[in-house]
From TrEMBL:
InterPro entries: Anthracycline_SecMetBiosynth, Glyas_Bleomycin-R_OHBP_Dase, Glyoxalase_6, VOC_core. Pfam families: Glyoxalase_6. This is VOC family protein. Residues 13-125, 139-242 form the VOC domain. CDD domains: SgaA_N_like.
Length: 242
């Protein structure tokens, strides 16, 4: 399903995802083959690139500027006012990591954590609305927060993003789960970005062939059949089929 490019995402809707990678060129090869993505910026090795599916933006791959940074996928939630939302987040026990800062003439971004330490992004659009496609094979379809305290997370995010999660007609692509449902108890709270695939077994075989690994084999969740994988540089994400 293609999104209407004129519409904007409401506050609290997952609207973008990026991967911070040691080697963007290797990332382009991995995700290009896995999801059929093409990339802008082919002539600028090592620069951030937009991934596209059938010409529409679906994610970005960025070079890590510091080797100590994690190799990770980050989900961004839409907001009309990143500064006001970061203030609400810190008032509620979260933490500001960076921003809000302007991203060219596209919008403003911030990185924050919730009270349990799970990192997520905020995106205030000013020219780049976010996903041009979602919920279809090769595109973002879901994000799951794995946390030691789902009840507290429901309260925190319910207060922040009430309309997106619980409002009339809401179709949230955002769930909360106890860490030990899937991961070891010592795993820190984190968001897991899910991309939809048509054939989960075939996608897992491709991940392995490209040098990635299966972190959690397929399991049934309320929102589809899921497997957790890492790419060939160690960034974790999930594959989902419905």
């Amino acid at each position: 399903m293609a999104e209407n490019s004129a519409s904007m995402y409401g506050e609290g809707t997952p609207c973008w995802a990026d991967a911070q990678l040691p080697d963007v060129e290797a990332g382009k090869r991995f995700y290009g083959e896995l999801f059929g993505w093409t990339f802008d910026g082919e002539d600028a090795p090592g620069a951030s690139v937009w991934a596209r599916l059938d010409g529409e933006p679906v994610a970005s791959l960025a070079p890590k500027t510091d080797g100590r940074m994690p190799t990770v996928w980050t989900v961004y939630f839409a907001t009309p006012d990143a500064r006001a939302l970061t203030a609400r987040i810190t008032d509620a026990g979260g933490r500001l990591i960076s921003g809000p800062f302007a991203v060219a003439d596209l919008g403003a971004a911030a990185l924050v954590t919730d009270p349990e330490g799970a990192v997520f992004g905020l995106w205030q659009s000013d020219g780049h609305r976010g996903f041009g496609r979602r919920r279809e094979p090769g595109a973002f379809v879901w994000t799951e927060l794995y946390t030691p305290d789902p009840a507290a997370a429901n309260t925190f995010y319910g207060d922040l993003f009430h309309e997106a999660l619980f409002g009339s007609g809401a179709e949230p692509d955002f769930g909360r789960a106890l860490i030990t449902d899937v991961f070891p108890a010592e795993m820190p709270a984190h968001f897991l970005v899910h991309f939809r695939v048509g054939d989960l077994d075939a996608a897992l075989a491709t991940v392995r062939r490209l040098g990635g690994r299966v972190q959690v084999p397929p399991f049934d969740a309320s929102y589809g059949r899921v497997a957790v994988v890492t790419d060939n540089q160690g960034a974790s994400f999930a594959l989902l089929t419905r």
